[in-house]
Design a protein that fits this description.
mainly alpha, 226 residues, elongated, 12 helices
C-alpha cells in the first residue's frame, strides 16, 4: 500500500526537503565542505525553521541505514530518492555526509550568513508568493491575455486573497532590500518564473518597486451618483 501523505511526512518529510534543494544542483558534498545546495538548505532552514534541522539529520541517517528494498519501493511504501547524479552505491555514503554536515552545523552553531539565494530551490523557498505571482501571471502567454503588465497586476490583486497580496508585497520589499545589481535582479525574476521582460522604461528592480506600490495603492471606489 502506498504511503499516506501523513505517514510520508512523518517519516520522510524533511529528508524530502533536503533532496529537493538539489534540483538542478550537483551532489558534490565532501566531508570537508557542504555543497552549494546543502548550504542553501541550511541557510534558509536556520532562518525559518531551525527546529527542522534535527529532524532532517535523523531522517537522513535512518534512510541511509535502512534503505528500501525493491519490493517496498515498487509498492510505494518507501520514499524513492530522485536521481541526484550519483552511482547507487554512493547514495548511502552521501546521505551520511549530509547528516554529518547538518549535525555539525547545529552542534557548533555554524549558520550560513544571510545572503541572496544561491539556488533555484532557495529562491522559491524564500520568496514563495513571488514565485507564484511571476511564474503564474507572467508566463510567455501573458501578452496574449492582458493588455500590459499593469493589467496583470490589477487582475492578480482583484482575484487574490488580500492576505496573499500582502504577503507578496512584503516579499517584494525583501527582494528589493537585497540591493542586488540589475543583472542579478534579472536573474532573480527569471529564477522565480517570469518569462517576459519588465516593461519599458523600467529595469527589473524598478518594475518590482512599482509593482509593490501598485499592489498597496488605495483602490478606486465608486459610490452611487449624487
Amino acid at each position: 500500500m502506498p504511503l499516506s501523505p501523513l505517514e510520508h511526512d512523518r517519516r520522510y518529510g524533511e529528508l524530502d526537503q533536503v533532496i529537493r534543494a538539489y534540483a538542478g544542483q550537483p551532489a558534490d558534498d565532501t566531508p570537508d565542505k557542504p555543497s552549494l545546495a546543502l548550504t542553501a538548505y541550511l541557510r534558509h532552514t536556520w532562518h525559518t525553521r531551525p527546529w527542522a534541522l534535527a529532524i532532517a539529520e535523523r531522517q537522513l541517517r535512518e534512510y541511509a541505514e535502512h534503505p528500501p528494498g525493491r519490493l517496498r519501493l515498487r509498492l510505494g511504501e518507501f520514499y524513492a530518492i530522485p536521481d541526484v547524479g550519483l552511482p547507487e552505491g554512493e547514495i548511502q555514503r552521501w546521505l551520511h555526509c549530509l547528516a554529518d554536515h547538518i549535525k555539525h552545523s547545529v552542534e557548533e552553531g555554524e549558520v550560513p550568513p544571510p545572503a541572496a539565494p544561491g539556488t533555484h530551490w532557495e529562491w522559491h523557498a524564500r520568496f514563495p508568493e513571488t514565485g507564484q505571482f511571476l511564474g503564474g501571471w507572467f508566463s510567455q502567454d501573458m501578452p496574449d491575455e492582458f493588455a500590459d503588465h499593469d493589467a496583470v497586476i490589477d487582475d492578480y490583486r482583484a482575484s487574490t486573497d488580500p492576505h496573499l497580496v500582502a504577503r507578496l508585497t512584503g516579499e517584494l520589499h525583501e527582494l528589493l532590500a537585497l540591493d542586488l545589481g540589475e543583472s542579478d535582479y534579472a536573474l532573480a525574476v527569471a529564477e522565480l518564473g517570469m518569462e517576459v521582460d519588465a516593461p519599458a522604461p523600467y529595469s527589473p528592480s524598478g518594475w518590482l518597486a512599482v509593482t509593490a506600490e501598485r499592489l498597496t495603492a488605495p483602490r478606486a471606489e465608486y459610490g452611487p451618483p449624487t
